[in-house]
Amino acid sequence: MDDEQNRQQEDWLNSRKNRLPSFTEVLSRRTRPPVDLFMFYIFLQREGAEDILDFWLDVQQHENLCRAYFKDVRKSGRTIKEDWPQYWEYARRRGSIYGTVVGLQPNAVKRSTTSTADMINDQEKNAMSHPADEKRGGLRSTTPGYEKEYIPSPPTVVNSPDLDQPRSTTPFSLSGRTSALFNLKRASRAPTFIPRSAAISRMDLIASAERIFFRYLSPVGTVNSPENHEIYLPPALRIHTFPLSSTQEPKSQSDLNMMAHIPDMFHSQKEYCFRAMEQDAFPRFLRSKAFGNLTPVSALVRLVVGLILLWIGLAAGFALIFLDVQPKSKRFFLFIPFTFAILFLISHQYELDPILIFLGQSESTPFRMLTIREPYVKRLLLGRAIWVTTLVSIFVVALTLLFWAVPGHRL
């Protein structure tokens, strides 16, 4: 068994040498900078769309919490049917994403989409739910005491037509918010970590689901918390009410039946967010980080500086011509402003600085570097850096020779 796993691991490592990573591999933290989960989060944050990733990670944490609860029940010697008959009946009729963990037969398992379930093992699922370590603590919520001070609004408030706020229209709509470029002090909404200092109870599951609902699914302005921001979901996937409360244990039959939906409550929404990120944001992220190493702000600065240096070079060149400065070889010094000007302008066009590539560096945020560690991405960027260097050399040589060849004429 170990030999088979080692062989599969070697095959996977060999395949990674000649291709870009998949979105699943990025989420499971099996990639290295600059195409890792930390960089993907920064990319979304720059667009003001990191909430959709926060939601996915929060739901992954919620599902891992439910999975841990089911495992604890089975370790205690009880079955899910005995401990939670309402959920057992729900899972038997509708299927469950937790599969044999709850004791269901394989044909009663409700599978996730191929992209998220088939390639991820339990260890990687746990890794996905704790991105703070990968992001060096950068994603943990910075709002102190949020879970303690937050009091959810009644379900009727969420559905009140008088307070209904305009909804987003696309998964990556800014919905009135500015990107991180103009909102540098915005606090990140990290997946809330629930420590296991005691056995997990069903009230913990309700608290986790309640937190997700009021943080991501209730319309903006209906919850008095800076952490609230509604993400876009199609009408068929929207959840309009959350009748349970983490402060009061369900007792009525209707509440108990509703509680049976808690473990699988957000799975369809999570799958939608996964597909939205995989098809929309992730390809743009790869184009940005696997084929370039500059941020938009840094590229814009290079454009401005390049135009200024080009103006200086052209002004100096025409001055040398119309003043007929001798010896004529002094015009060769024009290669200095031309080199930097063309380098900055082409770097802006390709969003790639060849000097940084040769040093093995890529920008994470404007003018802050990290080392490129993904082998295939490093080869791609090195090839593009050589091409950019070749273009710069051709343009610089052409401009320098052109200004050298023009005969001088003193005005």
What does this structure look like?
- With 411 residues, the chain is mostly helical.
- It contains 18 helices and 2 strands.
- The protein has helices at 2-16, 23-27, 37-46, 51-75, 80-83, 85-94, 114-117, 122-128, 131-134, 146-149, 155-158, 202-217, 253-259, 267-289, 296-322, 335-350, 354-358, 375-405, and strands spanning 361-365, 368-371.
- A two-stranded antiparallel sheet has the order 1-2.
- The longest helix is centred in the C-terminal third of the chain and has 31 residues, at 375-405.
- The chain is elongated, with a radius of gyration of 28 Å.
- The termini are far apart.
Total helices: the number is 18
Question: What's the average pLDDT?
Answer: 78
Major sheet attributes: 2 strands, antiparallel
Strand content: under 5%
**Distance, first to last CA:** 86 Å
Nearest-angstrom radius of gyration?
Answer: 28 Å
Widest β-sheet, arrangement of strands: 1-2
Low-confidence stretches: 111-168, 180-192
Please state the structural category: mainly alpha
Query: What is the overall shape?
Result: elongated
Instruction: Give the H and E element order.
Output: HHHHHHHHHHHHHHHHHEEH
Question: Could you estimate the helical fraction of the residues in percent?
Answer: 40-55%
